[in-house]
TrEMBL record:
It is found in: Cytoplasm. Substrate binds at residues 97, 107, 136, 225. The gene is leuB. Residues 4-356 form the Isopropylmalate dehydrogenase-like domain. This is 3-isopropylmalate dehydrogenase. The lineage of its organism: Bacteria, Pseudomonadati, Pseudomonadota, Gammaproteobacteria, Alteromonadales. PANTHER family: 3-ISOPROPYLMALATE DEHYDROGENASE. Signal peptide: none annotated. Keywords: Amino-acid biosynthesis, Branched-chain amino acid biosynthesis, Cytoplasm, Leucine biosynthesis, Magnesium, Manganese, Metal-binding, NAD, Oxidoreductase. Binds 1 Mg(2+) or Mn(2+) ion per subunit.
């Protein structure tokens, strides 16, 4: 029996980095004798161009029939003139998250020893390293709350979004965070804005209640504004960061950059049945798309997460992660990880993919 994976490469650097993830997956399949069948579907801007809508029925059906979704990224200036709900992000990515109830988004950010020089942190801070797991609620909050819209005209025209959280939504993501912490350094930092937002007051109360089931895990609360600065000052003191949808979006970009680049952060978005969509935390990077310079590591590590969580192929996932670490340690770095005077040593997107695939095949 072979596994079925729906591949949605999307826009901008999506197809470029997806090609490298596929190379690495082929290598791991060969080494571990796995049988994985991939079917590609258009999504986002590519689907608008080819089919007139960002999430065609065939794409949705293809995802429904798969064991997991490997997603690239969607969006870009070409489609920004469209009505908001017809654009790639709100017309494809958010509906996919909603349709499959992918409420649990996990984004692991680790600054590896020996790779501290890639971080923009001050050297005495980066020297301590850090290992943060961002656990982000993904199908609620201000992203999905109703009503949402615009009304009125002239100087009275206004726009509004609704931030809304139910006890149930907070409980289920909080359990994920505490369970994850039990397998790590046993600390949950819950990020909120309880000094201003009603949703955050409920968030804090529910997280406190859930914490009672995990007496071995330390819980602390922090306001989002303070969290963004403490991450720059003492990132090594954070373990699991439990965030609502919007705050997790912000925190995950920050921790990605603290490891050196947006192009290093992988992610899984999962539902309660364990069905998952795997994607880099970053976007379609229109500023570098088409140049063969994007960092494929986030997409490759997302493939490793797919092997681990959806296909339960732990050894194959570890082989990829070890190969990525080796490549980075061996100085295989794309340009954004280098200073301007080192940039002539930069590896291209495909050189990175080739090297990581080779290491996977040979084993380390
Ligand atoms: N999951 C997704 O599909 C997703 C996620 C975030 C943003 N987006 C969309 O992507 C488009 C661009 O958004 P943005 O510019 O705000 O965010 P972005 O993450 O695409 O880019 C931010 C910065 O990070 C850099 N970067 C990102 N990934 C990189 C990689 N793999 N290698 C090297 N550098 C990388 C980019 O060059 C850019 O300078 C928008 O349309 C946005 O809505 C999509
Ligand atoms: C593209 C956008 C809708 C998305 C989000 O805000 O969730 C992205 O920024 C992410 O982090 O996955
Ligand atoms: Mg984001």
């Amino acid at each position: 029996m072979s596994y079925q994976v729906a591949v949605l490469a999307g826009d901008g650097i999506g197809p470029e980095v997806m090609a490298e993830a596929r190379k690495v997956l082929s290598a791991v399949e060969e080494r571990f004798s796995l049988a994985i069948e991939y079917t590609s579907f258009d999504v986002g801007g590519a689907a608008i161009d080819n089919h007139g809508c960002p999430l065609p029925e065939a794409t949705l059906k293809g995802c429904e029939g798969a064991d997991a979704i490997l997603f690239g990224s969607v969006g870009g200036p070409k489609w920004e003139h469209l009505p908001p709900n017809d654009q790639p992000e709100r017309g494809a990515l958010l509906p996919l998250r909603g349709h499959f109830e992918l409420f649990c988004n996990i984004r692991p950010a680790k600054l590896h020893q020996g790779l501290e020089h890639m971080s923009p942190l001050r050297s005495d801070i980066s020297a301590k390293g850090f290992d943060v797991l961002c656990v982000r609620e993904l199908t609620g909050g201000i992203y999905f709350g109703k009503p949402k819209g615009r009304q009125g005209e002239g100087e009275n025209e206004e726009a509004f979004d609704t931030m809304r959280y139910s006890r149930k939504e907070i409980e289920r993501i909080a359990h994920i965070a505490f369970e994850a912490a039990q397998g790590r350094r046993k600390k949950v930092t819950s990020v909120d804005k309880a000094n201003v937002l009603a949703c955050s007051v409920l968030w804090r109360e529910v997280v406190e209640d859930v914490a009672k089931d995990y007496p071995d895990v330390e819980l602390e609360h922090i306001y989002i504004d303070n969290a963004t600065m403490q991450l720059l000052r003492r990132p090594n003191e954070f373990d699991v960061m439990l965030c609502s949808n919007l705050f997790g979006d912000i925190i995950s970009d920050e921790v990605a950059m603290l490891t050196g680049s947006m192009g290093l952060l992988s992610s899984v978005s999962m539902n309660s049945q364990g069905f998952g969509l795997y994607e880099p935390a970053g976007g379609s990077a229109p500023d570098i798309a088409g140049q063969g310079i994007a960092n494929p590591v986030a997409q490759i590590l997302s493939a490793a997460l797919l092997l681990r969580h959806s296909l339960k192929e732990e050894a194959a996932a570890v082989a990829i992660e070890v190969a990525v670490s080796k490549a980075l340690r061996d100085g295989y770095l794309t340009g954004e990880l280098l200073t301007s005077d080192q940039r002539n040593q930069a590896k291209s997107t495909s050189e990175m993919g080739d090297y990581i695939a080779q290491v996977v095949k040979e084993g380390v």
